[in-house]
Predict the structure.
Amino acid sequence: MAPHPLKKPKKPAPTAEAATPATGSKSKGAKANGTPAAAAVPEPEAEKKKPDTKTLIAGASWTGKLPITLFNEHVQRQPTWDKPEYTVHRNPNGYTGAVNLRARNPKTQEVTVLPPILPPREYMLEKGAQPSPVEARHFAATYALFRLCNMKNMAMALPPQYRDLWKGDFQELKKEAVASGQGYLYDADPFQAVKNRDEARVTKEKEIAIREKKREESAKQNNTVSLDGQVRKVEKGWQRVPKVEMGVKTRKEVERMVKTDGVWNPYEVRLSQQEVRAIKEKLFSYGFRPSHIAEAVENCGSLEECIEWLLIHLPEDDVPPWALPENYIAGFALAANDLKRENRVKRLASTGYSADVCAEILDASDGDEGKAAFALQRRLLGQAAASLAQTNGSEDNSGTELWDQEQATLEAIYTDRYDSERGICNVQLELRTPSRGGITFHARQPSHYPSSLPAISIEAALPAYIKLSILRQLLLHAQNNLLGEMMLFSMVDWLEQEVPRIIEQPDRLRDIANATSTVADTSVAAVPSRKRQRRHPKPLSWTRDSPVSARMQDSWWAKQGTPEQQKMLQVRKELPAWRLSDKIVGSVSANQVTIISGETGSGKSTQSVQFVLDDLIKQGYGEQANIICTQPRRISAIGLADRVADERCGRVGDEVGYTIRGESKQRLGTTKITFVTTGVLLRRLQTSGGSAQDVVDSLGDVSHIVLDEVHERSLDTDFLLVLIRDVLKLRKDLKLILMSATLDANVFEQYFSGVSTVGKVEIEGRTHPVHDVYRNELLQIMGYAGLTEVDEVGSDVASDWEDDFSFGSKRSAPRKEKPRKQYKQVGHDGHTIDYDFIANVVEYIDAELGAADGGILIFLPGTMEIDQTLRRLRDIPNLHALPLHAGLQSADQRRVFARPPKGMRKVVASTNVAETSITIDDIVAVIDTGRVKETSFDPANNMVRLTEMWASRAACKQRRGRAGRVRAGKCYKLYTKMQELKMAERPEPEIRRVPLEQLCLSVKAMGVEDVPAFLASALTPPASLSVSGALDMLTRVGALDRNELTALGRHMSMIPADLRCSKLMVYGAAFGCLDACLTVAATLTIKSPFVSPQAKRDEAKVAKAVFGGGQGDVICDLRAFEEWSERRSRGEPTSSLRRWCDENFLNNQTLMDIANTRSQYVSSLKEIGFLPHGGYGVPETYNRNNRNDALLRALLAGAFQPQIARIDFPDAKYKASAAGSVAIDPEAHKIKYFNEDNGRVFVHPGSTMFDAQGFPGSSVFMSYFAKMQTSKIFIRDLTPFNVYSLLMFGGSIQIDPQGRGLLVDGWLRLKGWARVGVLVSRLRTILDDLLARKVDEPGLDMSETAIVKLVTRMVSYDGLDR
């Protein structure tokens, strides 16, 4: 490839003919051809003449032109070519020459110089050297002539030796050049050839660049690049991504809010010098100016926050191109029908003011440009608004004479650099901008000149913020130094001196923010911590025999002699625990930790706490006694409180009380034994203030903590053990008592031995013999023929044993429904509960007991199974059947302890709450289904829920023991011995089998910084990978930010529910749709109320669609519950309500369970102060937006984050209509869905969205609550939502510096203006700040705040103006 032509002229060289040949030199060509150089007569050597050029080059007989002459003539015929130049170089082989050609453009006088014309280097080294400089020049001229005229027959015009070169060597050189792709060197017009060559090269480079760009675009579509350079592989379906648009009015309102309420660096992060340097380098590479970068780093705590700060504060004309939308021109655009107004705005904005600000001020000035100019100037200086009449000289001409005098002076001084137009003084400065542009000073006459400042503007090709900096500093200088005297000349002189400095060091962006935005920037760099100071109880003072203690002691001794108390003491003495009272009290007194293990019925739960309290009273420490006893279930806490209060001949709420979620009976200072659920004590510690010392202080008034049923190893219990162990290190006077029916004491002893002394007490049980009746024996006794142990072994029980059955849960894998079993046709697969068989067993037991009293206790896995069983038992006469489960109201739970009506037998259908802690005294027979609903993690939908499975052998042993409390009893086991052997020995600790998000959130809520280290100290530490995954998930859902608990996370930590449900309830309270969110949370906790019988699946689908309305599955469930609830509240008869449920394929019992769970959630929200105490249900102020489906869909998307799928629509098709082409809805099967983890996923056939061809509210995403895999990966419980729902409530928003838009949650890409993403991101911080206020101000009604109203509009209208 030839070198580029140069664009600069060279000095002409002397022509070849003017050169003097070397002495004695001969033509090389002549020698080669044997032609004498000259026909000379031999002379003496001293008298020989030097041959002339013609003779030297062509011989004495040559009459034609020499090569140089021919070439020069050819060049002269070209109108734009200059005279050629010849260069000669000497080398060991002789002389070599070259020709330089130049051409001059007659219009531009631009000179183009070609590279030197000479043969290839190899040829020159071998044949190109000439004996003399003259011959070298003619050789070069011949070659140059051949280069330009090789297509002509000019060889005959050359001397013979050059003629031979033309026809020989030069032709070969041309062939070689053509073969190597350099044939352009032999074109007739070398300048045009070079031009064509360059154009072809540029065209080729463009084509290469286009291909490279296409390749990069293709790569971009298959990878996402974040600001930190990480590349994430995505599917081909991401080639078309949704766009983000924001209405002009909406954007202005958002900017106003961000600039007035925004908080920067809320965690007060202090960057190291190394971090600052790295951030500055990165920002500079993104196209930001150093001065702006320095200001951003001062205000922010991270690279991402710096980018957000810059994109909000920078004027649009100084924002890097990648941050602007395509084809965007910074400035102001108006409709062409108001050109006068547009021109005024442009003139006002020319000095750097924002066009929006200019338009706003101009309108406020009634279109008066002069008034607007003064108002803008006052705004720049941050002065208070004044009346426009005071700031414009048009109504007051005082000072005009002085102004006119100064104008004449300025004209005389600056002459042609001065002019005046429309009453405005204009002076052109001598100073130039760095780009050599002009700077013009404009001054408009004010009123009362020179006691007031003129309206000044600076016109220059400089960025807006620099012009405003110049103007601001000039005005401040004039205001402080020039008022009262003619000042225009001094201003111009000041500008000539100071402008270069200001260009180098402009004002901070905050200083000129008033002029670059319609909103003043009142945001702050950081806010002080608003952590509310918690009031902790007064610490115990162990003063013996205080007046209160003395009165308690006297009262206690007096009570001991009463007949009622003596009677109770006789009952208590019959318990095995009574015999070990001294040992228990001694161990508690001598050790900080005491472990008490005892069989069922030993009295450990009721007696141990009384032993300790009585001992404290007798020793004179009654005032200090405050014993908290935890129970795993509400009914246990209530039942034990009732029993212990009875044994002490008192009332519940006095000396003995209880506290459960939503209900409390105790009196401060009076209640000495309080039974609480484990969660209540945990919440007390969680809400203590957020530090380790706060946890200790929150227990300051507690003397003893008793943890009952620790063998169950629930997540809450293990969590409490870690917390209390740390508290024991600091509170040596605090006593801990661990109690359980089946306890591995050694494990707990080792756990606590490092921090305190540990004592152990074992209590023997007091039970009567219990006879086991297994299923096979029961079948034979009851006359079920054909089913024996052999049949059982050959059944599918063994092969299916390991299956994890979840048929009691809506979101489990679907299974085929079995046909209804007829009477005495018992299913023998061991996987389903046969309610008819249970009823028959109850009937058999009742007949066997005959006239003897005694109740029957049935253990079932859940409330649905209890309801089904009770339905079957209604047909059996003389039965007093009662339910027992944690969801019942306290009064309903207490009914199981009462004696049945005369002539009736009590039958209690219970979950595993009756296994331990509570004792129903009159039970003589137990029916054990062997099933339990246990908390577990379902990875298909990433949620903690109750899953039905086989109970452990330890649990079955506890159930069995309930039959032998009053006399010998029987346990009817509805499973075989083989099934029992395959049961787990005991349940695995919950901390090892459930996700840890909720636990980690609770740990963070207590102020623990290093969560992994804290959990590693647990009795059974969870897997480290599980902990890190949980913390990552908490960050993604918005509960954590940089390892700090957000306000949203603090609220979520206090609500005892699945994270997604608690998040939804927080959002519901904030956005005025709490009633709907409570129902949804309860539905998700229980299951969908809809049923879908296999024989009527299509009918059920139609019925479900009626409620759904295209809004998704979750809102469909919500609307169905709302109608059921409304009918119920109107007093519709139960039979009619059930009939309506059947007609609409709804399960009435499930709806009842949802209502109960919903009530519990309301109680929880009241406990934490999120709702006001008192009243029933949810106040109407929290339900203003209950019917706003778009808002509900957005909140559901936020709650389910990150369970989101992108909707990929097929290419649009159109059909002709009278109004033009109309888009056709795509077919449902052509709409595709993609999620982060699995790529393409599919809508479950049972979803209301399965046949959807379109979605409401510009929805382009789909949130899902559950995911399952069969032949494909299906998503269900779907809710469609739009772009702004994702931006407001989705994952973190990242800005792509390469101009491709926004990246949400690390994988969802959106096309749009980067500034929109920043504004939304800052809105989210303001919303979190509002939630933080709610922590400190529980009565705050968030739904009426400006931020909530704005966000509601944005998600309802997808960011557009309405």
